[in-house]
Amino acid sequence: MKNLVKYVLISFLVIGGLSSLSAQQEAEKLFQQGMMKEEAEGNLTEAIEIYNKLVDDTSVAREIRANALMHVGICYEKLGKKNAKTYYEKIINNYSDQTEMVKLAKARLLIVAPLMDSYPKEKVFTLQKLYSSKEFYGSVSNGGESITFTNWG
Fold it and tell me: What DSSP element (H or E) covers 50?
């Protein structure tokens, strides 16, 4: 009877360990799918969805979740969205045990935060006619702010 109990307990431990290993392998596969969407296909919105699934699943290893958060931030950064820095801040605040990810998040924040604050709310182009003549002899400055020409008349 004791042997049977031991056998059953060992079986549960082995099965539990295998299912845990299998869940981590699935998480890694899902992360790789996100990488494919992000890097190979350039489909950032689908990559963000995949990464967010990993972040929201508390059964996934913290290392993978922190890495997924990093990539969500990178995707938003590529899209030019200001909320990229909030994902880097989440890594710093919630994943302090993942020291490499925290270092990377801090580095990205130092680079990205000033740029994100300077992004225009909307892109505005202004077209202004500077001079109109068929006999135009001149050039536009490098900055496009001024024009030089010769007035022969």
Answer: helix 44-56
Contact 33, 39 (CB under 8 A): no
* pLDDT recorded at residue 62: 92
3-state secondary structure at position 148? strand
Task: Say how far residue 40 (Cα) sits from the centre of its chain.
Answer: 14
pTM, entire model: 0.63
Name which of 134, 63, 146, 151 is nearest 104 in CA terms: 63
Give the closest residue to 126 by CA, choosing from 145, 149, 148. 145
pLDDT band per the 50, 70, 90 thresholds, residue 116: low
pLDDT digits (tens, 9 = 90+) for 34-49: 989 888 888 899 999 9
Tell me if residue 77 falls in helix, strand or coil.
helix
